[in-house]
């Protein structure tokens, strides 16, 4: 069994988009990758509706700029990068809105526990997502791209615009921080 990001990826679709018009190329990319891109964004923004909007906007932007792509076969990498960048922007916007709302109300926003959170699997997933969200942005992005999309270090580096060494460093630190946070949560349950 190969390590994530080192072997062939399950479900990877190798397609050439060179020579296709924008409509056909974007339609093929949408059919093959929309769901995975939404899931990537959900890992970053923790909201399905926002994630779907982010991915949809990335596809619309790529369609509009299709004729300007230097290498149409790198369209998926462009989409991944656009989704990560737009997710970052959505998080920044959310922080500004939350800060303004707290200031206006003079209250600290507290989130109520989800009443439907009875299932153990759902609770575990929430704990892991909370731990992931508590990581610094770059570590969270690297771990999401590496373990969810199973991208190689080179693909992650290209997507985030950082070096492969920085990818290794962020992945190592992020995984260590997750282990610590999840171990602390386990101790709290005992």
Automatic annotation (TrEMBL):
<dbReference type="InterPro" id="IPR013325">
    <property type="entry name" value="RNA_pol_sigma_r2"/>
</dbReference>
<protein>
    <submittedName>
        <fullName>SigE family RNA polymerase sigma factor</fullName>
    </submittedName>
</protein>
<keyword id="KW-0731">Sigma factor</keyword>
<dbReference type="InterPro" id="IPR014284">
    <property type="entry name" value="RNA_pol_sigma-70_dom"/>
</dbReference>
<dbReference type="Pfam" id="PF08281">
    <property type="entry name" value="Sigma70_r4_2"/>
</dbReference>
<dbReference type="InterPro" id="IPR013324">
    <property type="entry name" value="RNA_pol_sigma_r3/r4-like"/>
</dbReference>
<dbReference type="InterPro" id="IPR039425">
    <property type="entry name" value="RNA_pol_sigma-70-like"/>
</dbReference>
<dbReference type="GO" id="GO:0006352">
    <property type="term" value="P:DNA-templated transcription initiation"/>
</dbReference>
<keyword id="KW-0804">Transcription</keyword>
<feature type="domain" description="RNA polymerase sigma-70 region 2">
    <location>
        <begin position="29"/>
        <end position="95"/>
    </location>
</feature>
<dbReference type="InterPro" id="IPR014325">
    <property type="entry name" value="RNA_pol_sigma-E_actinobac"/>
</dbReference>
<comment type="similarity">
    <text>Belongs to the sigma-70 factor family. ECF subfamily.</text>
</comment>
<keyword id="KW-0238">DNA-binding</keyword>
<dbReference type="Pfam" id="PF04542">
    <property type="entry name" value="Sigma70_r2"/>
</dbReference>
<feature type="domain" description="RNA polymerase sigma factor 70 region 4 type 2">
    <location>
        <begin position="126"/>
        <end position="178"/>
    </location>
</feature>
<dbReference type="InterPro" id="IPR007627">
    <property type="entry name" value="RNA_pol_sigma70_r2"/>
</dbReference>
<dbReference type="InterPro" id="IPR036388">
    <property type="entry name" value="WH-like_DNA-bd_sf"/>
</dbReference>
<dbReference type="GO" id="GO:0016987">
    <property type="term" value="F:sigma factor activity"/>
</dbReference>
<dbReference type="GO" id="GO:0003677">
    <property type="term" value="F:DNA binding"/>
</dbReference>
<keyword id="KW-0805">Transcription regulation</keyword>
<dbReference type="InterPro" id="IPR013249">
    <property type="entry name" value="RNA_pol_sigma70_r4_t2"/>
</dbReference>
């Amino acid at each position: 069994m190969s390590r994530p990001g080192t072997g062939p990826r399950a479900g990877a679709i190798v397609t050439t988009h060179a020579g296709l018009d924008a409509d056909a190329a974007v339609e093929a990319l949408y059919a093959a990758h929309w769901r995975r891109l939404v899931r990537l964004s959900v890992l970053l923004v923790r909201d399905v509706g926002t994630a779907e909007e982010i991915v949809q906007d990335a596809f619309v932007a790529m369609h509009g700029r299709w004729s300007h792509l230097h290498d149409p076969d790198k369209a998926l990498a462009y989409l991944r990068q656009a989704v990560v960048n737009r997710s970052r922007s959505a998080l920044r916007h959310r922080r500004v809105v939350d800060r303004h709302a707290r200031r206006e109300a003079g209250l600290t926003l507290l989130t109520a526990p989800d009443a439907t959170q009875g299932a153990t699997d759902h609770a575990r997933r929430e704990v892991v997502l909370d731990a992931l969200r508590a990581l610094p942005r770059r570590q969270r992005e690297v771990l999401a791209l590496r373990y969810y999309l199973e991208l190689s270090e080179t693909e992650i580096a290209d997507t985030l615009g950082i070096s492969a060494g920085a990818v290794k460093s962020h992945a190592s630190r992020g995984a260590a921080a997750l282990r610590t946070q999840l171990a602390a949560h386990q101790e709290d349950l005992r």
